[in-house]
């Protein structure tokens, strides 16, 4: 009888404990904040809003884009690194997450340890270009003229530490030429500097310069992707121009804070891939100068690790100043 009472008591206790444990609500049960570490209206913001619009519908919860610009992207990236890893604060950032470790001495985050990669959503090459009246028709022409007149040439980029800036420095190192870097506040102003003749060469992401290339206002010498760009089939890439392994593109990718539950990450990956597969996303990405990638997490992880090391080596060789 005593044994029977003990069993009954144990069962009652187990039921009570189960009843007192709150059921885990299905994710997501409230809006998701998607932090973009750059100002509204820029390329990364455009991709974020494509993703947010589609995922808000499929998840049944609002995905809110929160622009936290400043510090070359470090403010917003650092904010997500310190966020609760519950799936309600995500990061959509550019290649800055992999470039900044080489440019800043004291980052408020570790790009590998503090984040879980979800998907590389899109990427785009940079493009090297000149005015048509420059007499330069190829990278070989540019290199020859720069060697003949080593103090003449300068090049415009969207700013210090951007992939476009690093593209120009990589060309200088690989070709053994001198060109003075002239940083501007964005790809648009850098492009217009070449149009106006303020600088001889431009190095920017494709989007702001592609219409001018197609109109004949500017001449593209090469794109910096692994392959030729599909909307500029006559423009060679740097590999074809005689520089094996010269790839310098810009990605936009989705990350979560480290420690985010695997089931939430799996859902976010599924939803992100579905969002980027829509016609609306493809058309909007193309207008912004990107191609859809929608990779798996491991590919993004490998890319970040490889990019960090490659950029550190390039920055050291080029003597680019590191911000403390």
In short:
With 324 residues, the protein is of the alpha/beta class. The protein has helices spanning 2-20, 43-59, 74-81, 96-103, 139-148, 163-175, 187-195, 206-214, 262-276, 279-287, 297-318, and strands spanning 32-36, 63-67, 89-94, 115-130, 154-157, 180-183, 201-205, 219-223, 249-257, 291-292.
Describe this entry's structure for a reader:
With 324 residues, the chain is α/β, with parallel strands linked by helices. 43% of the residues lie in helices and 19% in strands. It contains eleven helices and ten strands. Strands 1, 2, 3, 4, 5, 6, 7, 8, 9 and 10 form a ten-stranded mixed beta sheet that branches. α2 crosses α9 (262-276), α4 runs parallel beside α11 (297-318) and α6 (163-175) packs across α11 (297-318). The longest helix is centred in the last third of the chain and has 22 residues, at 297-318. It is globular and about 70 Å long. The model is unreliable at 1-23 (pLDDT under 50).
């Amino acid at each position: 009888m005593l044994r029977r009472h003990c069993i009954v008591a144990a069962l009652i206790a187990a039921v009570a404990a189960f009843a007192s444990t709150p059921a885990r609500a299905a994710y997501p049960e409230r809006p998701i904040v998607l932090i973009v570490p750059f100002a509204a209206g820029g390329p990364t913001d455009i991709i974020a809003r494509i993703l947010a619009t589609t995922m808000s519908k499929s998840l049944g919860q609002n995905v809110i884009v929160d622009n936290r610009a400043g510090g070359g992207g470090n403010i917003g990236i650092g904010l997500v690194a310190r966020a609760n890893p519950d799936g309600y604060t995500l990061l959509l950032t550019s290649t800055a997450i992999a470039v900044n470790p080489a440019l800043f001495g004291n980052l408020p985050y570790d790009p590998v340890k503090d984040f879980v990669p979800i998907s590389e959503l899109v990427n785009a090459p940079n493009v090297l270009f000149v005015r048509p009246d420059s007499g330069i028709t190829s990278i070989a022409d540019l290199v020859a003229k720069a060697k003949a007149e080593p103090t003449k040439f300068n090049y415009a980029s969207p700013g210090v530490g951007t992939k476009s800036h690093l593209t120009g420095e990589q060309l200088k190192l690989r070709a053994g030429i001198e060109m003075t870097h002239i940083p501007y506040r964005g790809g648009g102003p850098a492009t217009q500097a070449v149009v106006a003749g303020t600088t001889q060469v431009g190095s920017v992401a494709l989007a702001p310069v592609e219409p001018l290339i197609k109109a004949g206002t500017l001449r593209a010498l090469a794109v910096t992707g692994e392959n030729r760009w599909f909307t500029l089939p006559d423009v060679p890439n740097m590999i074809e121009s005689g520089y094996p392994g010269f790839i310098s593109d810009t990605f936009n990718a989705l990350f979560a804070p480290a420690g985010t539950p695997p089931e939430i990450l799996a859902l976010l990956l599924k939803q992100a891939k579905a969002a980027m597969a829509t016609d609306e996303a493809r058309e909007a990405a193309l207008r912004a100068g990107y191609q859809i990638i929608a990779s798996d997490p491991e590919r993004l992880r490998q890319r970040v690790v490889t990019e960090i090391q490659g950029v550190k080596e390039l920055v050291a060789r080029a003597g680019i100043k590191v911000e403390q």
